[in-house]
Amino acid sequence: MKKTALILIVLFTTLTQSQEMKPIPLINVSGEGKIKVTPDQVSISISVETKGAKAVEVKKENDTKIDAVLKYIKKMNIAKEDFQTQRVNLYPNYDYEKKKSNYIATQTVIVLLKDLSRYDALMDGLVDVGINRIDNVEFKSSKMETLQAEARKLAIKNAKAKAEDFVSVLNQKVGKAMTISDNTQAYYPPRPMYEMKAMAMADGGGAPQETLAPGEIELVVNVSVSFILE
Fold this sequence. Notes:
The chain is an alpha+beta fold and 230 residues long. It has four helices and seven strands, in the order αββαββαβαββ. The two termini are 44 Å apart.
């Protein structure tokens, strides 16, 4: 009797575990959300590079020019939190053609300009006070976080729509989401073309040249979602 009862318990346990391990029917889909926006800000990386035979003199000259650059940025009423020294370098350089060594000093400053209409005036003034390198220009939006949130919602809606398309011919329904994965890649905006002298006169017409083409920023969010099939 005890043996029979034990067999029944083991059989019941096995059946229960088998039912619990029954696979859940799922559909796995990807979704994409895209939003385009006209940028209203630009981050500019500018540098002053000086060369010379003596390290002390090269560094001193570079510091003098950077001082003028920073003063001009302040004169343009750019908030102190919107510009920052990014990099300072001083290193020896050997000229193999002339067979002699010299020194190169470089200082780089990042400026966040929140009014694109002032770009030409800012760059013209910076060139005049001593910058000799424009390393990068990156367009941004002041509403980036809000736009990214909207793009994420669009990506989920797109994934659910895909899932509903797939099951529409199977007499099934899309249920709750089991897993959601964010597959979004980091965004690296392209570098635009620009000129060192921003305010050169165009064809003698008296109007300044426009040297910045903001275009549009495209925010893309990619997700993978697993839905339960009902």
